[in-house]
Amino acid sequence: MKICIIAHTERNYLPYMEKYVDFFEANGVDYDIVCWQREEQPAVSRPHQYDYFEEAKEGFWNKFRSYLRYRKYVLSLLKKNQYDKLVVLTTVPAIFLRGILKRRYRNRYLFDFRDYSHERFGPYRRMVEALIRNSALTTISSHGFMEFLSESPKLVMNHNITWSEIIPEAPDLRNKQVINIGFIGGVRYYDENVQLIEKLKNTFRYQLWYIGKATSDCDLQGYCAQKEITNVSFVGKYDNREKPELYKSIDMINSIYGNDSLEVTTALPNRLYEACMFKKPIISSRDTYLGEVIEQYGLGLVVDAERDDVLAMADSYVAHFDRKAFGQGCENFLTIVRKDEEVLQKALKEFIKE
User: Fold this and answer.
1) Helix, strand or coil for residue 285?
2) pLDDT tens by residue, 333-345
3) Residues β-bridged to residue 181
């Protein structure tokens, strides 16, 4: 059996793909990966990997034509290599490939669904439902997605977790004079983070860090320079292998996404799992599924960055921080994750059966 994993961005931005890679290698499954290199050509070719190179384009029609070219490239590989099964990562590439998925790979592909995009549009939502219906297995990264997806026996939870060493105990925030709050990942959500910055600006105790490449519409660095805000620092692109060391340098995790769309209110980001593994409390937006999980397990602070007195709430949280209760909440949540991962592993073993 040979399987093709189809991705539509650089591998460095797809930590969740490595779960499939590790599973296939552990079970002796032959596989290839197709990645779309949007920023730069990889310096060294990687085994099992095909790289399609086309720089990111701005504007809807430019992006649309880029996807059509990528689709053509993928279709040529599928024809050439005659894969037995496919793993399609995220909705947009699955939509572009839905024809061949239904005709040639019906009940022979895994659809990895992990982001709300355009499901509010009826035709698009029906295409997504058809992709789920025609799949062998569909993995979802948040139970919050059931707010807009229909129930299906093909749906299995696939948490946004990349397991690494789990830190046994959280540092005591009460003993820290300076609290470093870090946003680690692709820097976006401009409006929400401007609100957070404004609430904590130029306070010595709270240092805000943005670690990762910013999107073109999220120039927080320019905003801070213009407003002469001195307690916000920016670090550029990093390698995912550096994450454990990066998390050692911060005290709390910034996961402020706002709550103005299903895209942000239903997802569970990597940061939630990293908070539990690295024992770092997480700050999130109110009225989100992430916020519900944080409050349920006692994993951090949930705020309305626009309306709340975030500084006072942060001061209170730090002053009353109970690291033992926080650590127990982390372990309680990770116990649920482990159980879901066992179900996923069984589903993947069914998927690779001849």
Assistant:
1) strand
2) 999 999 999 999 9
3) 208, 252
pLDDT tens column, 65-101: 988 999 999 999 999 999 999 999 999 899 999 999 9
Interhelix angle 289-297/270-278, nearest 10 degrees: 20
- The secondary structure of 85-100 as a DSSP string is EEEEESHHHHHHTHHH
Edge-first strand order for the sheet with 282-285 is 232-235, 206-211, 179-184, 252-255, 282-285, 300-303
Alpha-carbon distances, residue 195 vs 63, 118, 229, 256 (angstroms): 30, 26, 13, 10
Cβ of 115: how many Cβ atoms within 10 Å?
A: 16
Neighbours of 283 (CB within 10 A): 24
Question: Of 126, 132, 131, which Cα lies nearest the Cα of 155?
Answer: 132
Instruction: Check: CB of residue 141 under 8 Å from CB of residue 273.
Output: no
What pTM, to 2 d.p., does this model score? 0.86
CA 115 to chain centre: 8
d(CA 194, CA 226): 12
Q: What is the DSSP letter of 35?
A: E
Q: How far apart are CA 349 and CA 172, in angstroms?
A: 42
**∠ CA 326-340-165 to the nearest 5 degrees?**
50
Q: Residue 305: CA atoms inside 13 Å, Cβ hemisphere, count?
A: 25
